[in-house]
Amino acid sequence: MKKNLSRCLLAAAITGLSITATADTTLRLAHLWPATSAVQKEIFETWAQSVQEASAGELQVEIYPSQTLSKSNKAYDAVVSGIADISVTLQGYTAGRFPLSEIVQLPGVARDAPQGACILQSLYDNGAIAQEYSDTHVLFMFTTGPGYLHTRDTDIQSPKDLEGLRIRRPSEVAGEMLSSMGAQPVGMPAPEIYSAMQRGVVDGLSFPWEAMKVFRINELANYHMQVPYYTGIIMATMNKGVYQSLSPEMKTVIDNNSGMKWAMTAGNVFNRLDEEGRQEAIDLGHTIRVMDDPLNDAQWSIPLREGTQNYLNTLQQRGLETAQDVYQSALDLRQKCAS
Question: What does UniProt give as the signal peptide span (predicted)?
Fold first, then answer.
């Protein structure tokens, strides 16, 4: 008979009993992407199938897409508390909780999703950011491709064109950079953007091309400024008690479906979706402007470089003395992680 592992762990805690996961353990995986998306099918369903096959069916995975089990900004707490056994979400949705990890978001760190995934996973593996996840068991980490600026009615060509525009921000760090350029950052989870933009709550957003396709925003945005000013970082992490309750054999199954292999699998999926999202906008006849190297552009470099240094200074003021070292490590990893 199937059992929900989290409920069994809770019952065991109440009764004072110890419990070890046995046959037909069901792991609930929560994420924010649509059930029909390639992200669900090619990353999460593929991961679930790999786990189920490697465990000979002893581990089953139930997937809860589109925030159906937990809201994006509560997803990490949901896995800590056991509401979800596994959560996949963006660190930027929990402002200030993963400050060193968010260094990978900064402009100029990652050129594309595979490189970003490699950099982020490497920083976790070498211990530079691992302490930020001490209350869960991390499976793997990855990133989106570069996030760009997309608007419905405004053709953005320089930072001053953002003045007064209500732009959905992906994270606090990216939001501060938008503010420095005169925009009004608006926070909301990705699944809510379509409705907000359709109703005029926001004038535009910052998103990678992958998300423009997955969340159907290309239907609403007509102008795209391809200036890579942030990268979304993502974690797939597991309830620590759930992992510890597994038998040694089942822990090995999870371990073999963790780490760099799956980071790169996800990064490659996102990279292909970036290409498809951009092509979709081209096919729709949208206006696309390109600024590939904003850190060396006379106009864009000022807010982006200032925003980067302000963020690192803020972390050091908070007592995170390794911030500059983590940033330098991320930059140093670019060559090793070049795709």
Answer: 1-23
